[in-house]
Amino acid sequence: MITVHYFARLRELTGKGEESLDRAPLTVEELLDWAETTYPGFGKDTIHVAVNEEYARKEDVIQAGDVCAFIPPVSGG
Amino acid sequence: MKQFELVDTPIDPQKYSEFVLHPAAGAVTVFTGHVREWTHGVRTLYLAYEAYIPMAEKKLAEIGEEMEEKWPGVRVAMAHRIGELKISDIAVVIAVSSPHRKAAYEANEYAIERIKEVVPIWKKEIWEDGEEWIGAQKKYPEKGSR
């Protein structure tokens, strides 16, 4: 199982702050594709993925137990 | 307080200023970012910030490390507030001390630019006739944000 977090626009779109997925291992790109399919309008092309609190590349592999977060464009400050 | 933190209560800039002050520091710059009422002709009623808190605090600390590498001798403390903020409330504070003023100014500006690039914090603007999550991220942050 992996845990995925949703924030901001994505939290409102999905209606949840987090969920567990039984799909590992999978790449970051595959996770984004899954999200786009599951939640139309997700907007994967503008979203980054953090794995265990670090920005990951699209080809990085997510393993069972990892904590992932979808990071839409940030707007702090 | 922590040196790099997300808070959900009003920010007191003095705490961060005092945190970075030490006998070898000849300059302290304190930047406070505030909620602005008018942006490009649109009136904001209030803002709501949310964050991926553990990663955001980690990224703030990494920015602090970057600053210490680029401007040796600086000491840094930063905080960002989340939750609902009113017009003029402080959203972010960056305090930097250094032996001389130039580094304190430069490092401080570097910090706010990096916060806007890599720290997972999101701002929602609430207007009289709607609301929207704001996002201005331009590029994929490099792994490890360096």
TrEMBL record, chain A:
What's one GO BP annotation on this UniProt entry? Mo-molybdopterin cofactor biosynthetic process
MF terms (GO), sorted A to Z: nucleotide binding
The membrane spanning regions, by residue number, are none
Q: What InterPro entries does the record tag this protein with?
A: Beta-grasp_dom_sf, MoaD_arc-typ, MOCS2A, Mopterin_synth/thiamin_S_b, ThiS/MoaD-like
Superkingdom as given in the UniProt entry: Bacteria
Keyword list (alphabetical) reads: Molybdenum cofactor biosynthesis, Nucleotide-binding
Q: In which pathway does it act?
A: Cofactor biosynthesis; molybdopterin biosynthesis
Has keyword Calcium? no
Carries keyword Transport?
A: no
Quaternary structure, per UniProt, is:
Heterotetramer of 2 MoaD subunits and 2 MoaE subunits. Forms a stable heterotetrameric complex of 2 MoaD and 2 MoeB during adenylation of MoaD by MoeB. During catalysis MoaD shuttles between the two heterotetrameric complexes.
Q: What does this protein do?
A: Involved in sulfur transfer in the conversion of molybdopterin precursor Z to molybdopterin.
* Family indicated by similarity: Belongs to the MoaD family.
Instruction: Supply the name of the protein.
Output: Molybdopterin synthase sulfur carrier subunit
Which organism is the protein's source?
Sporosarcina newyorkensis
